[in-house]
Amino acid sequence: MGREPGRGSETGRGGTGVEAPGATCGSCPHRCRLREGQTGRCRARSCRGGEVRSDSYGRLTSIALDPIEKKPIALWRPGSRVLSVGSYGCSMDCPFCQNAAIARAGADDVEWRAVTPEELVGAADRLRETDESVIGLAYTYNEPLTFWEYVRDCSRLAHERGLANVLVSNGMSTPEVLSELEGLIDAANIDLKAFDEEGYRRLGGDLASVRSTIETIAAWPGCHLEVTTLVVPGISDSAGGVDEAAAWLAGLPGDIAYHLTRFFPCHRMADASPTPVETVRGLAEVARRRLPHVLVGNC
Known about the structure:
Helix 7 (239-250) links the parallel strand 12 (224-231) and strand 13. By secondary structure, this protein is of the alpha/beta class. The strands form four sheets. Strands 6-7-9-10-11-12-13-14 form an eight-stranded mixed β-sheet. Helix 2 packs across helix 3 (148-160). 27% of the residues lie in helices and 21% in strands. The protein has eight helices and 14 strands.
């Protein structure tokens, strides 16, 4: 495991309209404008040598062999397992984050281990040799698109060895990043945290960008897509919102599975109450009027 001094003492702010010497990050819709040595709001990318680069490339904080259903992916290769990896950093700031210890962290705040793409893909390949249920890699736990270059490089190597790639993301991406990953991702689960723009702004995100990501991945040939809404009281438990989301998903290409998952108190909402089971199940019935595959989680 390793630690390394931080590369900058300030956090970049995107969307202010104030230009400063440096470079603009194109990793997510915030498009942070960073001065030399400054770190973006995701805490995982910084400006170095006049370019914004990934600080978390190959720095893994989490690695585990998981059932595909845990991602959650329900309708693609059931019963298989994936070597799941995460780093640190995130492009959003959800008060209910289940992985805040790494998602809201920078390099100084966590223990990480440097793992090259060759090492990671080799480890998955060796696991497959002894366990035929192992099918590939999953990029998950924190927001993997904060280190999309690592996801791309690992995914290329994985495909060369006949391994699959699974992306679990909040969907806060840009067309440039998605174009780098097209053809490399075999299955994805994208969070749809709410279905109103103001709700997304409160979480540090952008609904239009997430919708664009979901639309883009839904159109990728050969990529299986599922979508998850964590049902959080007062944020994403509106029947009208779920109905609108389900109607929109029903109009996209493919047969998208929609997961509605029960919230349990954590992070800055540790004092909140869990979502009532009947609320989640009721919202699932609302979504089933629009979609054939609606699943409930944590109930």
